[in-house]
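We emphasize that the prediction below concerns an isolated chain of 213 residues; any contacts that depend on oligomerization or on bound cofactors are therefore not represented. The input was used exactly as deposited, without trimming of termini.
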Amino acid sequence: MTYGDLPRAVPLDAATGKASVILDLYLGNGQTLALSTSDGKTEPIPAVPAKDQRAYSKLALIWKKPVDLNLHAIENNAQIGAAGHIHAGAPRTAEEALELVASTEAGAGFMSSLSTGKLGEGHVEVYTYFHHAQQSSGAIPFAIEHATRGQTATGETCGEGALSEIAYEAVLLSKTGEVVREDGVIPSVACGTVLLDRVRFIRGAVPDIRFRR
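Result of the prediction step, given as a token string:
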């Protein structure tokens, strides 16, 4: 199955020949899925339109190399590791985010898709932000982490290694339905480098989610 230009393998149930797929619609409404089978046949299928598009925004991080990239959302000027720092290790749930929106009268988000970069030809992580009509103007900034490289650069993740430099694409879906796509590259670092947080967590590499009252 291909959504946008991101392919993913979908296993069929051995007994029924059917598949159930949860799709994160980070490209907005109007996108078509392409289903391909091993006999070379391809069939386009319209994706089910998302409900309440104006209630949320999304930021997707897409990459192809077999590494674990982590998308980090920084809510309310949170410090790394504190409440409001949303990522794979502290993803929140949609229910928790909606409870925060209702109780604080401010927006809140969660990681709606996660990937370790191990399966398939393409990988995506998506942060979904629920807006509140009365929230003050502001923004949710992001950081990217080359989690496979970790805190110390070694082996293929540094120097001229095959996994040292990682190309990625960022897709921002605003609550108006506008989609903005940007390309970027996580640069290589010298082998043996111990990465401080300000280097390990690359800020400003993808667009912010912005909102106005």
